[in-house]
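Holo prediction — magnesium ion.
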Amino acid sequence: MSMTMNEIERALRELRLSGILATLNTRILQAQANQEPFLDTFSMILQDELDRRRSCLMERRYNKSGLDERATLTDFDWRFNPKLPRQACFELHTLKFVAEGQNALLIGKPGTGKSHVAKAVAYQATLQGHDVRYLEADSVFAQYALGNSADQERQLQPLLNADLVVLDDLFLARRISDSAGELLQMLVHQYLGDNTMATTILDRLMHRSHLLEFEGKSYRLKEAATRFAQNTSISS
Ligand SMILES: Nc1ncnc2c1ncn2[C@@H]1O[C@H](COP(=O)(O)OP(=O)(O)OP(=O)(O)O)[C@@H](O)[C@H]1O
Ligand SMILES: [Mg+2]
C-alpha cells in the first residue's frame, strides 16, 4: 500500500527531511511532466535535502560568527585606493593562512577597507566550514573585564576553539587595559603556541603573520561626499 501525500509529508517531518518536504510537490510535477527515469528524480530529491542541510549549517555558522554583514570582495572597489595590497587580500581570502595556522595583521588609515576585507575573509571562512568569531576588540575586552573568572572562562573557550578569530579595531584605543591585555595575551599565546611570555604582544602578533598595510583615502568620506552632493542636488 502506498502512502497518501499527507502520510508522506508526516514521515518526512518525522525524519527531519525538510529539504525534501519543501520541494517534493515541484519534483513530483516535474517528474510527471518530463517523464523522468526514477533515478533522476530520486537524485534530485536527495540533492534538495543536501542543499537545504548545507545552507542551514552555513546559516548557523554565520550566526555564531558574530559577523554583522556578509561582506565580500566582489563589491570592493579596488580602483578607489590603488595602493591597497590587493594580491595579499585575495591570498588571505583563499584561507590558506587559516589552514596553515598563520595570522594576519591589517593596519592602516581609517576608512580604507580593513574591516571590510577582514569581514569578507571571515565570511568566506564560514562558507568554507570554519568556526569563525568576529569580535570588536573594545566591546569584548570590556565584557571580559566585567566578568568573574567563570564568565571569563566561558568567554575565552569559544575563542580558543575557533578556527579563525577576527579582532577588529584592536589598537583603536591608545592604551589597552590590564584585563584586555591578559585576554589578548591568552589568545595570542593559544594561536601562536609560543611559551616565552616575556615577548610583547605585538611581537607575538607579528610572528607568523601576514602584514597588510592599507594606505589611501577614506571611503567613508567619499560616501559622505556623495550623500552630500545628492542632498544638495535634491534641495537645489
Ligand atoms: N575600496 C572600497 N570599495 C568599496 N567599499 C569600501 C572600500 N573601502 C572601504 N569601503 C567601505 O567603506 C566603509 C569603511 O571601511 P572599513 O570600515 O572597512 O574601514 P577601516 O579601514 O576598517 O576603517 P577604521 O580604521 O576606521 O576601522 C565600509 O562600509 C566599507 O565597506
Ligand atoms: Mg575598521
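READOUT: The two ends are 75 Å apart (CA to CA).
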